[in-house]
Amino acid sequence: MNTSTYRQLIIIAPTCPPGVCGVSDHAYKTALALNKFYKSVKIGVEYFPEVIRDTPLTLTTAYWQSLLKQIEKNSTPGDLLLNFTPTSYSKTGLPFKLLQALKKFKKESPYNHLYIFFHETWDDSAGLRIHHRLRNQLIKYTVKQLSKLADGITVVTNEQKEKIISLTNSKKVRLSLVGANILPVDKENGLTSIRKPGEWVIFGLAHTRLWTLQQHLPLIQKLHKNGLIKKIYAIGPLNNHYADEELSLASGQLGPGVLIQTGTLDPGEVSAMMLTAEAALVGQTADSLRKSGTFAALSAHAVPVICEAPVTLDEPPGVAIFRPHELMTNQTLLSTIEGEKRRLLLHQWFWLTRSWEAIALDMQSWING
Asked: pTM score, two decimals?
C-alpha cells in the first residue's frame, strides 16, 4: 500500500536550478518525478543561485531552515531526503546547524522519516595535507551522525557503499540510480537521428577530458590515421592549463584542427551534438559509470560509448559498451550489426532503468518500503 500520498516530502540539496550543480540538478529532477506520490514535495536549499530564472520553478523552493520550521507547525507526517556531499553544507565538513535541525526533526514525531543520499564521500588518498586530513575526520564524524539519524541510506557506487558500511556498521545502505541531466526531446531521437561518420565527442571538465584523451590516444591515433576519426569535439569548460594541455596533446599527436574545444554549451546544444556524434570516448572506471550523469546522457541519446569496462559488468551492461581493444582489432565495429545491437541495448537500458520516472519508482519503493 502506498502511504506516501498522505505525507509531505522535503528534499534538501545544495542549490536549485538554474544553479550549476550536478547533485542539485539530480535532486530537483527526482523531486519533480516523485511529486505524484506525495501530498506535497518541496525543495530546501543551502543557497540560491545568483542567476534568476525568467519563470518560477514548478516546485516550492526555500531555504531548508524555513521548510523544517514549517514542519514544526504542521501535523502532516514528513519524509526528508538529504542530498549530501562532504562540503555542500559546511566548508569544514561538519554542518553543525544542519545536524542539529535533523535531530530536532526526528524527535518531533516518530512518523518523521529521514533518508540520506550520499552522492560523494571522503578522500582517503595517501599524501593528503594536514588540513585535508582534519577535514576528513570531521566529514567522517558527520557521516556517523547522519547514519545514526537515518531511516535509510543510499549511495551510487559500490566503493561508497563499502566505505560507509565500514565506518558506520550500518545495515541500511543501498545502491541508488543516477539519471541524465541532458535528455533528447523524444526518447526515440537517439535511434532516428543521422550520425556524422568520423565525428566523436569527449565530455567533462578539462582535466577529465585530458585524462580521457591520454587513455585512448593509441586508439585515436590509429583510427585517425585510417580516416575513421576526423573530428573530436571536446565539450566542457576551458580557460585553465588542463585545457591548454588537452589542445597541445591533440595538435601534436593528431595535427591541428582535429580536436575542437567547444567550451561550455547549453543543454540543448549538447543534446544536438550527442544526436549527431558517431561515438563518445569515456575514461571512467567501471564502478564510477554508475554515478555518471554524462554516461547516462550518452546512453539516452544512443551514442556508442568507448570505455575500458569489462564485458561482465552488470550495471550498466558491459555487453553494450565498446572496449578500445575491440576497435583496435575491428576498426569498423561501430557500423556492424553487432555494433548497432550494442547501441540499441544501451539505449534500452537507459529508458527502462534510468529515466526520471524509473528513478522515482525506485526511490519511492525504497522510501515507502
From this structure: 0.82
Query: Does residue 158 sit within a domain?
Result: yes
* 315 and 282 belong to one structural domain: yes
Q: Are residues 13 and 49 in the same domain?
A: yes
pLDDT in tens, 51-80: 777 777 889 899 999 999 988 777 777 899
Integer Rg of the chain from CA: 22
Mean pLDDT, residues 252-275: 95
Cell representation of residue 245: 594541455
Assess contact for 360 and 252: CB atoms under 8 A. Answer: no
Distance CA 114, CA 99 (A): 12
Quick one: DSSP state of residue 37?
G
Looking at the structure, tell me whether residues 173 and 217 fall in a common domain: no
Spatial neighbors of 241 by CB under 8 A, at least 6 apart, are none
pLDDT band for 284, please (50, 70, 90 cuts): confident
User: In b/e form, how buried is each residue of 300-325, taking b as 16+ CB within 10 angstroms?
Assistant: bbbbbbbbebeeebeebbbbbbbbbe
User: Where in the sequence is the domain holding 255, given as residue range(s)?
Assistant: 189-353
Same domain, 127 and 213: no
pLDDT of 4 > 80? The answer is: no
Q: Which of helix, strand or coil describes residue 36?
A: helix
Residues 272 and 231 occupy one common structural domain: yes
Closest CA to 119 of 174, 162, 156: 156
∠ CA 185-81-72, rounded to 5°: 125
CA atoms within 13 A on the CB side of 270: 21
CB half-sphere exposure, 165, CA atoms < 13 A: 13
164 and 264 part of one domain = no
- Interatomic CA distance for residues 345 and 333, integer angstroms: 15
Query: Who has greater pLDDT, 130 or 247?
Result: 247
CB of 55 closer than 8 Å to CB of 23: no
Count of C-beta atoms within a 10 Å radius of residue 154: 24
- Tally of helices (H runs) and strands (E runs) in the chain: 13, 12
8 Å CB contact between 253 and 218:
no
